[in-house]
Amino acid sequence: MTRTAQQLFGAAAVASFKLNGQFLTIAEELAKPSGITVAWWQVLGAILHEPLPVAGIAREMGITRQSVQRIADVLAGKGFVEYRPNPAHRRAKLVAITEAGHDAVRAIDPQHAAMAERLVAQLGTAELTRVVDALTTLSAALEALEGDATAD
Predict the structure, then answer these.
(1) Are 96 and 46 in contact (CB under 8 A)?
(2) Tens digit of pLDDT per residue, the chain (152 long)?
(3) Phi, psi (degrees; rounded to nearest 5) at 83
(4) Measured in Å, how far apart are the chain's first and last C-alpha atoms?
């Protein structure tokens, strides 16, 4: 049976909503022993390699600036991040991970690695690579469509 574009779009949306829920459930279990939430992990993950302004984290993670700001403020209060001056923008400070933030993320690594191995055992490396590539392509296409929609 050939599906219409609308049916395919709907099926992709439903599958991605379910997948998002599954990832969040797994991530909660992975993050729990380190004492951080999935939302905190998400923000810390966005700045693991370089400090970013709140808006940059929001773009990277696909969440709102307001949500990121609230989380960043909590993380700063707990010593997991710090605000630094941003040479590119006087008012938009950079959010930088601290050593305590790195420690919290590192505490997740053993469970994260074990779950990754279980998934690779289930799918195989080649299939998981194909899935990741397809999801990345779908995300880029939707991002391009968002840009088209705002240009109208």
Answers:
(1) no
(2) 789 999 999 999 999 999 999 999 999 999 998 889 999 999 999 999 999 999 999 998 888 999 999 999 999 999 999 999 999 888 889 999 999 999 999 999 999 999 999 999 999 999 999 999 999 999 999 989 987 766 65
(3) -90, 135
(4) 35
Question: What single-letter DSSP state applies at residue 89?
Answer: -
* Domains annotated on the chain, with CATH: 32-151 (1.10.10.10)
Distance CA(26)–CA(34), nearest Å, equals 14
How many residues are given for the chain?
152
**Do the beta carbons of residue 51 and residue 84 sit within 8 Å?**
yes
CA distance 27 to 109: 12
Distance between CA atoms of 101 and 81, rounded to whole angstroms?
A: 6
